[in-house]
Specification:
The complex is a heterodimer. By secondary structure, chain A is mainly beta. Helix content of chain A is about 0%, strand content about 50%. In chain B, the strands form two sheets. In chain B, strands 2, 4, 5, 6, 9, 10 and 11 form a seven-stranded mixed beta sheet that branches. Chain B has a four-stranded antiparallel beta sheet with strand order 1-3-8-7, with no helix packed on it. In chain B, strand 9 and strand 10 form a beta hairpin. Chain B is globular, with a radius of gyration of 14 Å. In chain B, about 35% of the residues are buried. The chains are: A mainly beta, B mainly beta.
Chain lengths: ~110, ~120
């Protein structure tokens, strides 16, 4: 079983749609959680950190459920520019050691 | 956020040769991380580089194949040695980034390596 699992998609949605990505992780000692965005042939870029209380940044909302070891990302009012691969990332074990474990990514394609 | 300059951005190399990738950070950082992203795959950690000590390698990666240098707090190199076509990947460095009160990890722009 992979340490971080995501539905690879692709998710094909029209502009303006709301789309949700889910992620599960296997290591209950994981401490930090992130969503990264990766465009084709580019490096991953931090979209948002994920906190236990949930957090929102504009059209993006992230949720963390430690009991279920589940992370989600909600994108509202999708834009064409949201088309990318979204990577669920957790730190390995306890502490912020920088050992990031990446999910395989979920591909989003927003169509006009 | 931290700014990382990584080079080369891409290279095509003959099998059996070695390539050294460099990452320069615009601020001092304790740890630098090296990742590999194979075609169609997500990122996998190769090793963690601390200044003044030997790098710590993840399972499946060894120092003879991927020697790392960390001469100071702003710079690191990763060498891919005795390359084979299976080493064709994107290699990325990363640092912890706490600029602006946030927390995350910033990546270099990556080195796209093709071994022929």
């Amino acid at each position: 079983r992979k340490e971080v699992e995501q539905d690879p998609g692709p998710f094909n949605v029209p502009e303006g749609a709301t789309v949700a990505f889910n992620c599960t992780y296997s290591n209950s000692a994981s401490q930090s959680f992130f969503w990264y965005r990766q465009d084709c042939r580019k490096e991953p870029k931090l979209l948002m950190s994920v906190y236990s209380s949930g957090n929102e940044d504009g059209r993006f909302t992230a949720q963390l459920n430690r009991a279920s070891q589940y992370i989600s990302l909600l994108i509202r009012d999708s834009k064409l520019s949201d088309s990318a691969t979204y990577l669920c990332v957790v730190t390995h074990g306890s502490g912020n050691t920088g050992k990031l474990i990446f999910g395989q990514g979920t591909t989003l394609q927003v169509k006009p | 956020s931290a700014v990382i300059s990584q080079k080369p951005s891409r290279d095509i190399c003959q099998r059996g040769t070695s390539l050294t990738i460099q990452c320069q950070v615009d601020s001092q950082v304790t740890m630098m991380f090296w990742y590999r992203q194979q075609p169609g795959q997500s990122l996998t950690l190769i090793a963690t580089a601390n200044q003044g000590s030997e790098a710590t390698y993840e399972s499946g990666f060894v120092i003879d194949k991927f020697p790392i240098s960390r001469p100071n707090l702003t710079f690191s190199t990763l060498t891919v040695s005795n390359m084979s076509p299976e080493d064709s990947s994107i290699y990325l460095c990363s640092v912890e980034d706490r600029a602006g009160g946030g927390y995350g990890y910033t990546f270099g722009s990556g080195t796209r390596l093709t071994v022929v």
